[in-house]
Amino acid sequence: MSATTAIDRARYRDHPSVLTALKNPRMLTREVLAGLVVGLALIPEAIAFSVIAGVDPKVGLFSSFIMAVSIAFLGGRPAMVTAATGAVALVIAPVAPTYGLDYFIATVILAGIFQVVLGALGVAKLMRFIPRSVMVGFVNALAIFVFSSQFPQLIDVPWLVYPLVALGIVVMLVMPKLTKVVPAPLVSVIIVTGVVLAFGITVPTVGDQGELPRSLPELFIPNVPLTWETFTIIAPFALGVALVGLMESLLTAKLVDEITDTHSNKTRESWAQGVANVLSGIFGGMGGCAVIGQTMINVKASGARTRISTFCAGVFLFLLVVVFGDFVGTIPMAALVAVMVMVAIGAFDWHSIKPSTLKRMPKSETFVMLATVVLVLITHNLAVGVVGGVLVASVLFVRRVAHFVTVTRSVAGDMVTYVVQGELFFASSNDLTTLFSYTEDPSRVVVDLSGSHVWDASTVAALDAIETKYAALGKTVEIVGMNDSSGTMHGRLTGRFE
After folding, report:
1. Which helix (H) or strand (E) holds 444?
2. Residue ranges in 283-362 assigned as alpha helix (H)
């Protein structure tokens, strides 16, 4: 085994490990109870996302169960929860109503295959190009998105829903001060449910969201023709699901890395998400990706750190809907709304909007963060917001760097020297040709690039244009000081643009 491989294994080793948790009763209890809370929180959202996707509620529930259990073994980020999600539901929504359930399931399976391929190609490495301002915007938009998604449960409902939500929030605020052995969200759900059952209060419940399944998921092989026509129908939707799912999963993994101060294997997470989607499709599920809200419940609110919590979330979800469906159906939605509201409040980066922070932060950074938030809220798609935020950040960066190039002119007898300082690429080199005094300069011109670097063909073309202009006036140009990389690129491309 090479030294690099050993370092990578040490870096990506689970901290704490599953074995450590199994040997520590207190830690194991925390992991199991965290999984129970997440399992409860997954139920209403899986049903809601099934409705968005135009399929039966059991499709979303089975998908969440299968993906959570499989990612617990396969995934690269311990304690992260994968299940049916709104982002994937929105992308795949047109398939079932237009082409039917078989094409829908085939799309999910193909999306998983795409993710496995993208994972093998190293798409996770692109995460390094996402700046911090976009990450902050992603987190803030997500918090707003999670909070606003609770509005349907708070509008046109019995007035008793509001004090029940308030009770749940108070319990979650007080519990951590008393003990952290039992996750506060679980205690909140139990107390609010107990109050509703004890006093016979009539409020919307989980059972009102849709019928819960009563049996195990079965193998579902989509009955679609294996033709090019079928591929052209489902491939665009599958690719959209693959990209949106990977982006949301990798961003969530990065966020959990920061919260837990640990590293995770993003490449493994990428192909594992694909395998989980393939398994979900084979068993009739709708597919999905990492769910940020439930992951925050698991990691931040409940303190989970290992794969045990993710596995338990899937198992408890299955047991709750299949075995204890009648009891789960009585849980008031107010209890789960309270949990999600606290998740949203805890996830929002309040430091990013403090006046003192805004005053110190470069305006471009703040603008990128706000652009990301606005794009997410307008499109209701986290992936669109992140891509848009990265594009805005890239444009602002290029614009800023383009102005860092300086050209200094000095004349000595029959020779003029131009010293170029800065990074030369398409944005900065386009103006380079305008910084020379062609008619006023003596017969010998020296361009000193020792303080700069040639990055692309646009710069080589600009240098060729400068030489051509001087040659037309009968003057010679000598380019000196190029570093090895710049010299190689210039030598390979110069004179080849005509």
Report:
1. strand 444-454
2. 292-296, 307-322, 325-328, 333-347, 355-360
Q: What is the DSSP letter of 299?
A: I
Query: Cα 381 to the chain's mean position, in Å?
Result: 11
Structure tokens at 227: 């033709």
Distance between first and last Cα of the chain = 51
> Which pLDDT does position 8 carry in this prediction?
57
Which residues contact residue 334 at a Cβ distance below 8 angstroms, ignoring those fewer than 6 apart?
Answer: 153, 161, 164, 165, 168, 192, 196, 203, 204
pLDDT of residue 5: 56
Instruction: Give tens-digit pLDDT for 344-393.
Output: 887 788 888 889 888 888 888 899 999 999 998 888 777 778 888 889 98
Residue 28: per-residue pLDDT: 93
Per-residue pLDDT tens for 409-425? 999 888 999 999 988 88
What gap in Å lies between CA 284 and CA 109, rounded to an integer?
Answer: 10
Nearest to 221 by CA among 286, 288, 283: 283
Asked if residue 204 lies in contact with residue 335, where contact means CB atoms within 8 angstroms, the answer is: no
C-alpha–C-alpha distance, residues 131 and 422, integer Å = 22
* Cα 264 → chain centroid: 14
**Is 208:59 a contact under the CB 8 Å cutoff?**
no
Residue 228 neighbours by CB distance under 10 Å: 9
Phi, psi of 159 (to 5 degrees): -65, -25
CA distances from 138 to 102, 241, 290 (A): 34, 18, 14
Total residue length of the chain:
498
Q: How many helices (H) and strands (E) does the chain have?
A: 22, 6
Give the DSSP letter of residue 204: -
For every residue of 354-393, DSSP letters joined together read SHHHHHHS-HHHHHHHHHHHHHHHHHT-HHHHHHHHHHHH
Residue 478 dihedral angles phi and psi, to the nearest 5° = -125, 120
Q: Which residue has the tokens 């005053």?
A: 359
- pLDDT of 141 reads 84
List the beta bridge partners of residue 420. Answer: 407
Q: What's the token pair of residue 421? A: 């300082």
Contact 16, 27 (CB under 8 A): yes
pTM recorded for the entire structure: 0.71
- The amino acid present at 309, given as its one-letter code, is S
Q: Taking a C-beta distance cutoff of 8 angstroms, is the pair 392, 371 a contact?
A: yes
> Which residue ranges of the chain lie beneath pLDDT 50?
1, 3-4
CA trace torsion 296, 302, 306, 311 (10° rounding): -80
Over residues 433-487, the pLDDT tens digits come to: 888 989 999 989 999 999 999 988 989 999 999 999 999 999 999 999 999 999 9
